[in-house]
Predict the structure.
Amino acid sequence: MTFEEAHELIKQTLPEKRYIHTLGVVETAERMAVQFGEEVEHARIAAMLHDYAKYFDVEEMRRVVVEEGLDPNLLEYGDELLHAPVGAILLSRQYDLDDAVLSAIRNHTTGEPGMSRLDQILFVADAIEPNRDYPGVDRLRAEVERSLEAAVVATLKQTIEFLLKKSVRIFPLTIETYNDFVNIP
Ligand SMILES: [Fe+2]
Ligand SMILES: [Fe+2]
C-alpha cells in the first residue's frame, strides 16, 4: 500500500477532527524519522493509518481480539486500547503492508517493551503532533530535541500520570514498557 492509497482510505474512514489529528501525526512522524534516521516512508504510512480503527464498532473489535488470540487483557482495560492492535490486524488482512508499519500501528497506544525505533516515533508523534494541546505537551516536544528515548520515557510518564489522575487502571504492557525504557539505578 502506498502513502497515497493510505491517505485516500483514511480520508474516507475518519471524521474530520481525527483526520486533522492524523495529518499532524504524519507531519511529526515524518520529521522525527528524518531526525532519527529511520525509514521515512514507513513512518508516513504508519502515521497515516494509525487510527484507522478508532471509530469501529467496539463489539466487533472485541471479537477480533478473541478470534486472533490477542492479549486477553485488552478486554479488561477500557475500549480505547482496542483500535491499535485491532486496526493493525484488519489492515494486514486487507492490504499489503510492511511488518514494521503494522508493528508501529499495533503499539502506538500502549507501547511495548523492546519496541522498534519506528514504533517509538509513532508513539511519541501521536502524543505531540501540532494539534495536541494539553498541559505538559511542550515539555514532551522539547524532549524530542534531546533523544528519541528521552521522548519515549516522557510520553510514557505523561500517559501513566494521566491515567493515575483519572483513577483508571493502567494497562500492564504500558508499565512494562516504562520499566524497559527507564535505566536501572
Ligand atoms: Fe490511536
Ligand atoms: Fe492518534
Summary: The two ends are 44 Å apart (CA to CA). Residues 3-181 form a domain with the Hypothetical protein af1432 fold (CATH 1.10.3210.10).
